[in-house]
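Practice problem 4.
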């Protein structure tokens, strides 16, 4: 195709006005000077992107008019800005096909690095095979990422907005909504209340509701008979704690 374009350009009957040119046309604006217009156009993302893409496209397609290329890039950028992503979807699909082609080509060349003899012995060019398979796997990974991006562009993910619930001990105020009501009137925000003494206050709101256990009951007559405990003085009998322990052991045994 590049050769065909070059032959067409070299035809003697081709008008000079249709020949590709690398010159960039600057739009006229009476409010700005030519230097300002040149700076704005030259530093715009549209012009910079076109200047970067044109040399690569000319490697395959031949000479391309810069002004025409600038118009194409500007048109696609405007379409994307307005929500038309057809060009972006087509670009991603074309890149995925290209990456898949690179993967298959590298794998095919890697297979040629392996030589199997008639007796079953084999030899391999390890360095060449490593380089080729590494490029193949990189192309495969990029192809997968490109297709994933294309899928998210076609079917965007739904974003869920979850209101935060603040959980804490004690009085607090949680306000996840707006302060204005449905009719536009400002609502008074809720105030935190102190509930520290609410339990006692509830019991005192009406009469005869206090917690009163009445007068203290008299002592009962159960378990009135008590036996005296024999006095043991270790200082007098000279035996001390050891003798007391022995007497306790005898009492338990009996």
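Answer key:
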């Amino acid at each position: 195709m590049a050769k065909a374009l070059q032959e067409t350009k070299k035809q003697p009957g081709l008008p000079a006005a249709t020949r590709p040119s690398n010159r960039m046309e600057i739009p006229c604006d009476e409010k700005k000077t030519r230097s300002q217009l040149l700076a704005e156009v030259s530093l715009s993302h549209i012009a910079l992107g076109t200047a970067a893409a044109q040399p690569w496209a000319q490697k395959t397609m031949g000479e391309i008019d810069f002004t025409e290329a600038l118009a194409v890039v500007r048109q696609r950028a405007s379409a994307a800005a307005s929500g038309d992503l057809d060009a972006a979807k087509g670009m991603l699909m074309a890149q995925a096909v290209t990456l898949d082609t690179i993967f298959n080509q590298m794998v095919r060349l890697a297979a040629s690095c392996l030589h199997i003899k008639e007796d079953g012995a084999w030899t391999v060019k390890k360095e060449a095979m490593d380089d080729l398979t590494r490029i193949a796997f990189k192309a495969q990974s990029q192809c997968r990422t490109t297709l994933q991006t294309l899928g998210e562009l076609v079917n965007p993910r739904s974003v869920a907005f979850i209101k935060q619930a603040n959980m804490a001990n004690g009085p607090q105020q949680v306000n996840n909504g707006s302060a204005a009501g449905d009719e536009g009137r400002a609502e008074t925000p809720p105030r935190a209340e102190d509930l520290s003494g609410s339990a006692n206050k509830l019991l005192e709101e009406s009469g005869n509701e206090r917690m009163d256990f009445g007068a203290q009951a008299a002592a009962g007559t159960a378990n009135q008979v008590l036996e005296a405990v024999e006095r043991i003085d270790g200082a007098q009998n000279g035996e001390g704690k050891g003798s007391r322990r022995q007497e306790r052991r005898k009492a338990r045994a009996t």
